[in-house]
């Protein structure tokens, strides 16, 4: 009788844990994320803020379609987004093509004092994306104001950003060199506000079938792992 009670308790603990893990996992799948670049340090170079380290800031984070990067800086520091590694490496977009590079925020050297800048940038394309400041002949970029991220598909884009994605510059094909043609457009200014969006929104249901498939596959993978854990636990309980 005591052994039966122990087994029942073990199974109850396991199923409770399974329910919690699945609930947490589903919640994490549905939430788009907003990332403040540099966290409390913002978007600056090492000459102004010696502690900034954007490579360290990127490490461990997962960036997906529909997420937003929030740049908090001032009018002495620009924001350049490019899909071209050569442009990024040179810290200079003067000769870059508008097909793959966009100046999202410009500087105002004529201002008596810098103005605050708050710039939300949606992630609209899968693959490597590069950001840097090109001010003062690339000096800010060369002094740490740059980073690169790999954008994954995740849930896919919400409906509110799909039009922006169609108009955004596209990544350069690495197999074809830097001259690969892509649509010569930029991110519309109307898409400058991050939103907390759920993939279960009514307006997105019909457009997110591919995203749902990705989420379901990941959920089944999680379930398979937990099932293996359950079998191991069950074996231990039976032995006891």
Automatic annotation (TrEMBL):
Q: Which residues form the Phytocyanin domain?
A: 33-153
Q: Where are the transmembrane segments?
A: 9-27, 218-239
According to the record, the residues making up region (Disordered) are: 160-209
Task: Name any GO cellular component annotation.
Answer: plasma membrane
- The answer to whether the entry has keyword Transmembrane is yes
Extract the InterPro entries matched here: Cupredoxin, Phytocyanin-like, Phytocyanin_dom
Q: Where is the composition biased (Polar residues)?
A: 182-195
Keywords of this entry? Membrane, Transmembrane, Transmembrane helix
Question: Which Gene Ontology molecular function entries are recorded, alphabetically?
Answer: electron transfer activity
Specify the superkingdom: Eukaryota
A Pfam entry, by short name: Cu_bind_like
PANTHER family in the record: BLUE COPPER PROTEIN, EARLY NODULIN-LIKE PROTEIN 18
**Descriptive protein name:** Phytocyanin domain-containing protein
Give the organism the record lists: Heracleum sosnowskyi
């Amino acid at each position: 009788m005591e052994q039966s009670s122990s087994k029942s308790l073990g199974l109850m603990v396991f199923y409770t844990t399974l329910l919690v893990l699945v609930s947490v996992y589903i919640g994490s799948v549905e939430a788009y994320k907003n990332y403040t670049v540099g966290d409390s340090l913002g978007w600056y170079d090492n000459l102004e803020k010696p502690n900034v380290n954007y490579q360290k800031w990127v490490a461990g984070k997962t960036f997906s379609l529909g997420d937003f990067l929030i740049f908090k800086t001032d009018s002495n520091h620009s924001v350049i987004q490019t899909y071209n590694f050569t442009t990024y490496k040179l810290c200079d977009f003067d000769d870059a093509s508008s097909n793959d590079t966009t100046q999202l925020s410009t500087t105002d050297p004529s201002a008596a004092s810098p103005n605050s800048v708050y710039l939300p940038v949606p992630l609209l394309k899968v693959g490597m994306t590069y950001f840097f400041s090109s001010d003062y002949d690339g000096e800010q970029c060369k002094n740490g104001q740059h980073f690169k991220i790999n954008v994954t598909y995740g849930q896919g884009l919400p409906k509110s950003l799909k039009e922006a994605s169609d108009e955004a510059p596209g990544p350069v094909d690495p197999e074809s060199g830097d001259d690969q043609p892509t649509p010569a457009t930029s991110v519309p200014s109307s898409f400058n506000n991050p939103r907390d969006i759920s993939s279960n929104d009514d307006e997105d249901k019909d457009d997110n079938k591919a995203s749902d498939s990705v989420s379901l596959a990941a959920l089944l993978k999680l379930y398979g792992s937990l099932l293996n854990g359950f079998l191991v636990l069950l074996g231990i309980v039976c032995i006891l």
